Structure formats: C-alpha cells, structure tokens
Automatic annotation (TrEMBL), chain A:
A single Gene Ontology CC term: plasma membrane
Main location: membrane
Membrane topology reported for the UniProt record: Multi-pass membrane protein
Protein name: Carbohydrate ABC transporter membrane protein 2, CUT1 family
Organism field: Anaerocolumna xylanovorans DSM 12503
Keyword Cell membrane: yes
Record's keyword terms, sorted: Cell membrane, Membrane, Transmembrane, Transmembrane helix, Transport
Recorded family membership: Belongs to the binding-protein-dependent transport system permease family.
Any GO BP annotation: transmembrane transport
TrEMBL record, chain B:
Keywords: Cell membrane, Membrane, Transmembrane, Transmembrane helix, Transport
Native organism taxonomy: Bacteria, Bacillati, Bacillota, Clostridia, Lachnospirales
CDD domains hit by this protein: TM_PBP2 (cd06261)
Residue span, ABC transmembrane type-1 domain: 78-291
GO cellular component: plasma membrane
Family, similarity comment: Belongs to the binding-protein-dependent transport system permease family.
Protein name in UniProt: Carbohydrate ABC transporter membrane protein 1, CUT1 family
BP GO terms, sorted: transmembrane transport
Amino acid sequence: MIIRESKFSKFLTYTVLSLITLLTLLPLIWMLSASLKLDSEVFSLPIRWIPKNPQWKNYTVIWGKIPFGLFVWNTLKLTLVITVIQIATSSFAAYGFSKINFKGRDFLFFCYVTTIAIPWQVYMLPQYSLMNKFHLVDTHIGYVLLQSFTAFGVFLMRQFYLSIPNDLLEAAKIDGLNDYRIYFRIVLPLSKPSLATLTIFSFVTIWNDFMGPMIYFNTTNLKTIQLGIRMFIGQYSTEYGLIMAASVVALVPVFIIFLAFQRFFVQGIATSGLKG
Amino acid sequence: MKNSKAKGKGLSLGTKNLFLGLSFILPNFIGFFIFILIPVTFSLVLSFMKWDGFHSMEFIGIKNFIYIFKDRVFIGAIFKTVYYSAFTVLFTLVASLGLAVLLNNKLRGINFFRSSIFFPYVASIVAIAVVWNALFQKDFGPINSFLKMIGIANPPGWTASIHSVIPALIIVSIWRNMGYFMIVYLAALQDIPYSLYEAATIDGATKRQQFFRVTLPLLAPSTFFVLMMLTINSFKIFDLVYMMTEGGPGNASTMLSQYIYNQSFIAWNYGKASAAAMILFIVVGTITVLQFKVEKKWLSYM
C-alpha cells in the first residue's frame, strides 16, 4: 500500500511519528541520563536531561562493587553455548518434521507446539526437582540443558523449511544425494536468513533472561548480568546512578545486535506470524 | 531390477523413513522430552499430591484444588489476571495496529521510527522494571511531577497504591509489546495488493471506508494471531510483575503466575502450586482452542 500524500499530510505524519517515537524512547533516554547523575540529582526538578557534571565514574564503579565483569562473561558464555545447541539441533529436527514423512511425526510435532502455549510457571517446579535429582541445580550445565531444547526454535525453522519446494529435494535425490547430504549441502545454506533470525532471538532471550538464572544460580560466581543489576537494587537501594549505569551496560550488546541484524528480527516475527 | 530386490530384502519404506526421520529429530527431541515434556506431565501428577519436595509424596485427590479455590489470594489472582489481560490485550492490539498503519509508508527515515518503537521489546525486563519504577515513584518521580505540573493535585500512587498498581503494569506492558505486534501487522499490511486500494478509489471509497472495508477484513488472520499471542502472554505475565512489585503492595498485583511462584518457591507447597498451574494451563488452553474455533468459523465466511 503506497499512499501518495500532499506536503501537508507528510508534515503531519512526520510530526505524529516523531512525537510517538520520542514518547516511546523517553524512559530509555531518562535511564541514560540518570546513569550519569549523582543520586541527589536523579529526581531533581525540572528534569535536566543532559547532566551538568556527567558522572562517568558510575560506569567504572559498577565493575568493582560486584563481580560485574565475571557476570558479563558468564552471560556471554551461556548465551553462545545455548544458541549454538539450539540452532544445530532445532534446524536438524525441523528438517525431519518438514521433509520426511514418517509415522507419528505429526503427533511429536503436536507435543512441541502444545508446550509453546504452556506457561513456564506450570512446569517450572517439576523441572526444578528433576534438575535437583540430577544434581544440576546451581550449575551452568543444568541451565544450558534447560534452555537449549525449547519448541520455539523447531517451530520457527519448520515454518521456513515448509517454504522450500520439495521438487528441489527430489531433484537432488535423483542426483544421488541422501537426506543428510541434502540437509547439509542444500537446505542449510538456503536457510541462512532463518538461522540468523533464530540466533538473534535466542541471543536476546538468553541474554535478558532473569527468571531462569534467579531460580537456578545461588553461587555468586555463576550469576549473570541480569542478576547483577538486581544486586545493585538489593544492596545499594538508593544508588540510582549505579543501577542505571549497570542497566545501560546490559542493554548495549542487545542494542548493537539489534541495529546490526534488524531485518532478521522483522523477518522472524513475520515468519512466526504466518499460519503453518 | 537389482535395486528393487535389495529393497525387498531390507526394511520397508515406512520403517526406513521412520528411522530416517527419528535420526533427524532425536538430538533435539531427547532434550525436549527429558527437560520439558516430562516436567509438563509430572506437574499434572503433582497437582493431586501433597509434597514439599523433601518428604515422600502423598496422594490426596482433588484436595489441592479445593484448597486453592477457597484461598482468597488465588481467587483474587484470577480476577486480577483477567483484569490485567483484558486491558493489555485490547490496548496493545489497537496501539500496534494504529502504529503499523501509520508506519506503513515510504517516507524517508521510516526505519528509524520503526526500530525505535520496536526497541523496548528487546530491552531486558530487569532494566525496564528499574526505570519504570523510578518513573512511577509516587512523590518525586518524573511522571507524577509532570501530572502535578499540568494541574492534577492528587496523582495516583502507581506501584505504591493498591488501586493503580495494575494500571501501571498495563502501561508498561503496552509500551513494551506494541512494537512487536506492530511488526506482525506491518508484514501483513505489506502483503495487501495495492490494486485493491486502486479499485476501491475508483469505486469512490474514502480513506476511512478503505480502512474499514478493505484493510481491516484482510488483516483478520493477523488479528487472530496477535489476539492469541497477546492473550497467552498476558495470562502468563510474571517477570515484569515480579520485578516491579513482587505482587504487591500486599497482594494487589499478585496474578496467577506470581501465585504459583509463591506457592512453589516460598511456601514449598508443590501440590498447591501445581494445582494452580493446572488452572492456568486450562484457562490458557481453553482460550487458545476457543480462538482457533472462532477463527475457523469467522474466516470461512469470508
């Protein structure tokens, strides 16, 4: 839909859009501004959006007060490992679900889809006691196992594989390729955009996850960046500047990934919104 | 000929495909089965048990369900979840559709606007909760300062008041989610062929008529998707509430998920927690099935 607009309506659209955008970003701008303030200034009125004496030291202090650097490393490690396992196993499984016709396939897939609609709170507890039995509570491995096999990845990749024409695979079979080779040589290279989408979604989800680490990690050395921010709230409840600075640091990687791979986000949302 | 002989000796095609298919699926399915499917099934069993996680389990029939339905906190949690969900779903739907229509044009810099509105969705809830709690601060927070400035003498207490804590949560949820669903709508809008609008214009339809007679009906499948996702997500709401209010003040924002969490990890009533979890699952499941049914009926008439 392309709407041809007069100059006036164009101006009007820009004004409305700018206002909405500004309003949407205002909380984040406020956060950025507060992260450079003294606590006495954070709530002073009228709001000074650009601090008079920017407190850059807020950004250095946070690394010393709690092991924030270690938390960043833990988060990075967990995010990468989980994302890799998820990508590898779910794209492989999605090929089975979309391109091979076998007995019980639809039932198995139904199990996956059902769990998307089941809130995590429903099975959080049995999952915890199961992990406890395996002695995997308070370990990184436990958390990795927990997060790596979610249904979302399989669902997203299957949506994409359904759009790959079967004729293409038939042709490859006539040329003597078996299904494993077809997957690695043809389907995988074709699905780069979807893999990128899944990577980004997985990255953002794990990076931002709070509940999982909160329930599973007790030892300080295992904790992640999101738990770190909460530690500032607990220990230094009045030090808003530090909390905001830590929050900004946690947002930066997501922001960079978001800017760099924006179109994959959009594509992924559009794909998962299609009817399978 | 040789080939078919070899096939006859070996496995049938069906069995062969079964093994082939399983070989693709198993690496993921084993993990999925152990860490997700078993716990899901087990929570059903637990809802009929009395268990604190340490001592042995005891089968007590539907006693857990009777207990939670007599618990005023649980009944309150149901009402609050419905209240929160109704407004969140409605306003987020309207906001995301409105934004999508507004942003569906080829103006210069349109991507900047789209990304900015989407960005809150990828920001961490921990950070979001901290910021909004500060913004909502009752006495000297920026929002109430602004409200006082424009002449509202007694602005709401937001997260500090039992009357306005849920509206505060609704506002943050809309702000966070509207960008995501805007993109779902944008994708759908871009699939509507331009020729339809040309035809409508030739027939003399106004912009408003075009929106209600062309755009809206064609967006129906997306609207069902958005409605379903929003409803499921709203009923599941936990992280945001936990981080902004922990269900408080008092139990004013204790919704279903928070109740389940409290019963499991604070009271150690595994049975009651699972019973409440079952209720949440039944509610979400019913809504999902209902929406599917309505969708099928509705769309088949189009």
